[in-house]
Amino acid sequence: MVGIFGLMTLVAGIVFVVLMVWLWKKSNLSTLKKSILSLLLIVVLIAGVFGSFAYVLISSDHAYYSADGLNLDEVDYGKVINNARESGYTVNGPYFVNSEIENANGLYSPLSELEQQFGKDYWVVAINGYYTQDTFFELRFPRDESGTKVTFFNGSRTDPYFSSFKKENLPDDEWIIDRFMLLFDIDNNQSQDYLNQLKDKIRNVNKTSVGITIQKTPDIDSIYKSYQNKSSNITLSPTHGGGWTTQTFYTDGNKSSSIDYVIPNMKIINLYGGAEYTIQIDKLGGVNLEIELDAGEQIPEEEYIQVFKNMFDNIGLPPEKVDEFEFDYRSSVW
Q1: pTM of this prediction?
Q2: How many CB atoms lie within 10 A of CB 169?
Q3: Topology of 65-93+265-330 in CATH?
Q4: In the chain, where are the structural domains located?
Q5: Is 278 helix (H, G, I), strand (E, B) or coil?
Q6: How far is CA 221 from CA 110, 165, 184, 217, 228, in A?
């Protein structure tokens, strides 16, 4: 929407400049008339720009029915997608949450154990290590930046959402050095250098968390095996259609580390009665439902429930599961 508005503004600006040049080159008009006409052109330009913006806002507005996603446990993902195509539905994707692959963040590491759970298309999007339950680091891999972003958080300090992060809010030096060595397969001296960079960043930046970018790719294979070997219990959170899942590692009953993954999902779209019905389904059985329609319009509950039940039946999902979704209605985006 912003791109369209920007283009319209650019075109209007070019037309305005051309008209102004043409106007002031007219030799048969007095300076007063040219000034009056220039003011009129400015008024018309401003009215046109704001009118165009209002039109874009109105034309892009929609009402929505949306539900919190559920996990249906084991589903035959490939068969569901194939059934959707055979039923004449539009099938879009794959998506990683709601991003197409070229815009998604994360890393892929071919670990056989993870491939058995997720298939070969999973991405690692974050790696976390816990010093205490609310003091931890987070590794992320932004697509628009080089390197790995390492950020430290401390939720136990006074006013953690607004107060500045200080050196004493970091975990012990040795703990950080050991973690850097594990994360990036480096020696003690290199780890100490990164720790010094971290402390320098605290002195120079006034933020509620502290982070540095390391121009290395983490050794995910070693990290995963270390987390696994030191854990007494491992859990995996259920997906809800977007494909996001967190594997949490516990040691002696306390959360010691976690890894966030994203699994591909597809969107199955059915245009019915002027509304767009979407089933978002991921490879781990997560399902999310949404309806898009014109702003302000509504659909009787029994009607949209039945449409989704018919879709579930056609693509090979149990129709009775639709009754477990709870829908919220928004009359407008704005």
Answers
A1: 0.80
A2: 20
A3: TATA-Binding Protein (3.30.310)
A4: 2-59, 65-93+265-330, 99-262
A5: strand
A6: 8, 31, 11, 11, 11
